[in-house]
Amino acid sequence: MRLLPDQHQPQPEARSSYGGAELSPADRIRSNSSDWLISKAPAAPTPSVAPKRSKLSASAKEFHPTSMPHLSVAQWPSTPIPSTSQNENGSLTAYHPSALLGALRADAALLRWTREHVRDRLLRPGTLDADAALLMSPELSPHVVRLLEERDETMRRCVLAKVKPFVHTVMGSREGHAVFLELLRACEGRFDELEGIVQAACNRKGFLMRVVQQNPGVIALKELIRVVAPVPELRETLLAGLLNECLMGQSNGDVLLHHCFMFLPQEDCKIIIRLAVASIDEMLSSPIGCNCLSVCLSNARDGELQALEENISRRAIAIATDQCGINFLQYALRFGSEELKVRIVERVAENIVDLSRHGVGNYAVQACFLLTESDEAMRLVLSAFLLLRPGELEALVRDPHAPFVLAKLLDKGKRYSPLLAGDLAKRIDALPAAVRQEEHATRVLMWVIDRLFHN
Question: Where is region (Disordered) located (predicted)?
Fold first, then answer.
């Protein structure tokens, strides 16, 4: 596979065909496009006066402009998104947008192309390099969009044929995704044409999820989901392609998941939830997976919801002490069902001492009474602390983390369960003075007790 060089890397000097080496992609674009322009250009008018003699001498230095403010320079990702196109030898070729645009701008004549120039080029067979420049350059791609808006059948099919060979690159580029969006709108309701797009996108070569690493790709893929949602065959093919490429482990996967739940029917959404249940441990091990699991929890229904909640509550302690999992547990305690909240709090209450002293776990204990807005959850946490032996309670008061948990619990507990909160405050107040005045955290706890229960 031969990749086009990045614009920031030194490029070898292109040799002519006499040296046995083929032209570079940039040279091919310039050559093909310039030949076409020359063939269409009108004859130059005869000047009415004799031209002035040039004042430049043979020794004059070459002029290099310091800036070209009229040209917009697109900011492309440093890592190219490979396409699935094939060259004449059948090998895969990756198109780097910056190299294509550099070649396009190298010939100033190409920047003056009109919509009719672009129309003529689209209707003719062209090289993959030239087609890519048409679809993804800031100067020419707007013409392609306008032509698609005319809803001409021939033009629609020509653009479709030129997009499919490197659909992933078009979807993921800043200008190309605008062409892709308009093409989808033009093809909406046309099964054969949409099928061609879906099959090109879901080619099982691992490129589909590379598209969503950039915001243009996310927008393009969201629109593709919406357009094919009413068509069962295409919907199933696209969903299988997304899941086969580990949608729930990819950047922006949660955004696409949310879009799937918005537009796909319930039966297809159940497939997503079942996959989440089967891979829950892997998903909980990364922030991206936790975000996707949160989306699944919010959209699960019926039996799939019960299975997901059962797996979450069973792993509550492991999740509570994990740097990635704690954010998901807090989400579940805030937005989960009442039944899930109680089951998680029960598991936390069984391990209240260890979690309260844990650097991460203490936040899980706090979430049980700060985020749930549940009287039952508050009662369970207060009761768990009241059941501790004096030595266990003393160890918590001496700990660097637990006193802050106790202080927040008493502060909120006085409003929800004043009797239980008062009993816990009395037990802490009865500890030896040396314990209550030992550490800064302990002094904060005693200040809270004095403020809430001694005034």
Answer: 1-90
